[in-house]
Specification:
The chain is built from eleven helices and 14 strands. It is α+β, with helices and mostly antiparallel strands. It is rod-shaped, with a radius of gyration of 55 Å. It catalyses: ATP + protein L-histidine = ADP + protein N-phospho-L-histidine.
Length: 507
């Protein structure tokens, strides 16, 4: 459940729960103040209504209303009964028990008044009833003017049989109801305040808890990361926004941990690289110094010896220049600062050209080089020709380091699919150990076999790492396959490009 939905539900609950609890409280207080009984009430028309848990109070109110309706019916249908003393006495007594009363006025004179009616203030009160709006007024009961009551009065005009003018006043005492309501309403209001306060506090507690707990969890995780503890995973196990934040935080932790691990690995690789470069540079420098000392001490006392020493100095300088160039090239590739000049390149023609160039290289004079392919026509890819040539030369140079057999062979193979070209350079050298094979494309990595090869030439450990950087910049992939004692095959792919017949646009 999202935080937004949780907040919306909490707002709805803040409205519905108080309403529900208020209704429940009202029912309980009604039972307490007005009593609870299962009774049956018969209406004035004889129809029986069955009420559940009706109080005695409301039963009296209903009975009083029915009796008053009966008196009004008598006034309309048989007004002479209102002049019968026995009928009036019985009706007045019944109304008195129901906390009501009646007054009969005939031709302007009061002919009957219930026993509870205060005779002293009767005429004034009747005048007030006649002038009051909707027949409501203040009634002073017979207990005295200092003790009053609240009532409702209803006036009914009728005519006696002798055409005398009659007026019926039906009086209903509200004191019992007002007495109960005076206690019911304040308690109900106080209950409403308690319910609203309790509901808001409860919902605020749970909603804030559901928000603060994940915040504290994130805070503790951030403090652990600040202290450098990156091995503790953050497990939110939530499906809301905090869960998404937790997943992003956990991904950040994993990436940071990987980044630090990679940084430490780079640092170790750099240290190893410095050691290797120092070793590899020291070897040709030592050779150059030996040749210079030989020339200085006139050990090379013939022209042939001097030329030999000078040739050795040139070779050692070339080795140093090659290692420095590879280091500089890899640094630019690693920093993404080496520009690429992409253009359409015929892969088949390019391999043919490289094959001829390798055959003419003195270093490969003892190596049998061949191009193997079933591709007949041009096969175009968008590539940087110079960088691609560097790839082939680095792979071929790496293969040369591993060749330790009298019959040395190097094959350039080309395969094609609808989407990419596959180039494979295969040799029959000593091969690479299975444990070292996954690491051959790592920066600064060198298998020991290459350092002790028959050629006597070590590498910087960057040749195949440069190959991977260049091929990945072309959108291809590179891999190595090798069998100890059989040989090694370095393969890479190049995405092919197609051209329309009319314009040569790239598709």
């Amino acid at each position: 459940m999202t935080i937004r939905l949780r907040l919306i539900l909490s707002y709805i609950a803040m409205v519905l729960i108080p309403i529900f609890l208020t209704l429940l409280t009202a029912m309980v207080l009604t039972r307490v103040f007005f009593g609870t009984e299962d009774t049956s009430v018969r209406g004035g028309d004889g129809f029986q209504f069955h009420g559940h848990a009706l109080s005695e109070f409301w039963e009296k109110i209903n009975e009083r209303e029915q009796l008053m309706n009966g008196v009004k019916f008598v006034a309309e249908q048989d007004p002479e009964l209102l002049a019968d003393p026995n009928f009036l006495a019985d009706t007045g007594e019944t109304l008195r028990e129901l906390q009501a009363g009646l007054v009969i006025v005939r031709n302007g004179e009061v002919t009957y008044a219930s026993a509870d009616v205060d005779q002293e203030y009767l005429e004034a009160e009747l005048a007030r009833i006649d002038t009051a709006q909707e027949g409501h007024s203040r009634w002073m009961m017979s207990r005295g003017p200092e003790v009053g009551g609240r009532y409702t009065a209803e006036r009914v005009d009728f005519t006696f049989d002798d055409q005398g003018v009659g007026t019926l006043y039906l009086l209903s005492d509200l004191n019992p109801l007002l007495g109960k309501m005076s206690r019911f309403m304040p308690l109900m209001f106080f209950s409403l305040l308690v319910i609203v306060a309790f509901t808001n506090l409860l919902l605020t507690f749970f909603v804030s808890r559901s928000i603060l707990r994940p915040l504290y969890t994130l805070k503790r995780a951030a403090e652990r990361i600040k202290e450098g503890e990156l091995d503790h995973p953050l497990l939110m196990q939530r499906k809301d926004e905090f869960g998404e934040v937790g997943e992003a935080f956990e991904e950040m932790r994993e990436r940071l941990k990987h980044s630090i691990h990679l940084q430490l690995q780079y640092e170790e690789n750099r240290k190893e690289m410095l050691s290797n470069i120092s070793h590899d540079l020291k070897t040709p420098i030592t050779g150059i110094k030996a040749c210079v000392e030989g020339l200085r001490d006139r050990v090379a006392d013939t022209e042939e010896k001097r030329n030999k020493y000078i040739t050795m100095i040139g070779q050692k300088a070339d080795d140093m220049d090659r290692m420095i160039e590879e280091l500089f090239l890899f640094s630019k590739l690693d920093l993404k600062r080496l520009p690429f000049d992409f253009e359409p390149v015929d892969v088949l023609g390019f391999l043919q050209s490289c094959s001829e160039e390798l055959k003419a290289d003195p270093r490969f004079a003892q190596v049998q080089i061949e191009l193997i392919t079933a591709v007949e026509g041009p096969l175009y890819a968008i590539a940087d020709r110079d960088k691609l040539k560097r790839v082939l030369m680095n792979i071929a140079d790496n293969s040369l380091h591993y060749m330790n057999k009298p019959d040395q062979r190097l094959s350039l193979e080309l395969e094609a699919s609808p989407r990419e070209a596959l180039v494979r350079i295969r040799d029959n050298g000593a091969g690479i150990d299975e444990a070292a094979l996954p690491k051959v494309f790592e920066r600064f990595y060198r298998a020991e076999a290459s350092r002790s090869s028959s050629s006597g030439r070590g590498g910087s450990g960057l040749g195949l790492a440069i190959v991977r950087q260049i091929i990945e910049a072309h959108g291809g992939i590179v891999r190595a396959d090798s069998r100890a004692g059989v040989g090694t095959a370095i393969s890479f792919t190049l995405p092919l490009q197609t051209y329309s017949r009319t314009g040569g646009e790239r598709k």
